[in-house]
Description:
Blueprint: H1 2-12, H2 19-27, H3 29-34, H4 42-53, H5 63-84, H6 95-113, H7 122-150, H8 152-157, H9 162-170
Helix pairs in contact: 1-5, 4-5, 5-6, 5-7, 6-7
Amino acid sequence: RPTRQYMLNKLEGLGPSNPEAYSALASNPVVAQNLDEHKPKVRPMLLRLAYEACGGTEWERVLAAGAAAEFVNVASYLVNALHDGKAHGGKAIPADQQILFGFVLRDLATRCLQDVSLPLTSSACMRMHTLLSETVIQGCLGQYQDIYQLQVGRLSDGSMDFRQALTLYED
């Protein structure tokens, strides 16, 4: 719950500058579904467990990093829903809104990293931002593979066999 609340606070921080856009973002069904209080936040939990496994004792210090991972995840769901042509809850979501909100959430993830309260060198902070950026880039490239190269329909119509599909993910 603390990660969810932190994320909601970050989103609410957008409200004063553009209340209409904030309202649309907060009510977006993909965002709402992924910030539901009953949906477990696996990425922040894994980050916390890794921190504790490495000897960390104050997990609240890495809460913002967990929120960053979750914001990137929700942003990828927004873009994926667009590419898969899925309407959520029977409600069609404009494509431009999905794209814009995906950008906003990815940038919020970057802002979250500023709130990580660990004694990090400037080099370690840069590395953290680089890794977040690399995660986003690899996610986008993976989406490209799904849309343009893999095309699950090609598996079922016989124009690509399973071994060919696997090679796309091995590269």
